[in-house]
Design goal:
- This protein is an alpha+beta fold and 144 residues long.
- The protein has one domain.
- It contains 4 helices and 4 strands.
- The protein has a 4-stranded antiparallel sheet, with helices on one face.
Length: 144
């Protein structure tokens, strides 16, 4: 069982996660053996799991510079943070066409509080912002 399953368990989310992961793998984009220090604490399965599919996001808000997702706090917010950091690092060297964290210049920031978790994904320029927003809408739609 993927460690990400402890963050959000459900048949629909598992199917979406599997399909999204298969899209990455079909393009040869696998984080499994990526040697970046941000990925070191994660297992191969945790590296493969899309962090955006690990939380049942309640809202997606377009903000200046990108998007903000909010949802309930996962059981292990540290693990989610490590997964996001790993995917952002991987995306800097191996951009894909579907992952919002792989948009050139994308940055992510996560906050956890009593009301839940908030994940901001921002880009540096107008084209990057539009691409982050488009991709997040596409990926998050998978969970609904």
């Amino acid at each position: 069982m993927f460690a990400a399953d402890r963050l959000y368990v459900g048949e629909a989310s598992e199917r979406a996660r599997r399909e999204h992961t298969n899209e990455h793998s079909a393009q040869g984009l696998t984080v499994d053996g990526y040697p970046h220090p941000a990925c070191a604490p994660l297992s191969a399965a945790e590296r493969r799991a899309c962090p955006l599919l690990a939380v049942p996001w309640r809202s997606l808000t377009l903000v200046p510079g990108g998007v903000e997702l909010t949802g309930p706090s996962p059981q292990d917010s540290g693990q989610l943070h490590r997964m996001v950091a790993c995917h952002v690092a991987f995306g800097r060297e191996h951009a894909s066409r579907q992952c919002p964290l792989h948009v050139p210049g994308a940055q992510a920031a996560m906050r956890v509080g009593p009301a839940g978790v908030s994940l901001s994904i921002l880009a540096r320029d107008v084209a990057g912002v539009a691409e982050v927003q488009r991709r997040v809408k596409q990926v998050v739609k998978l969970q609904r």
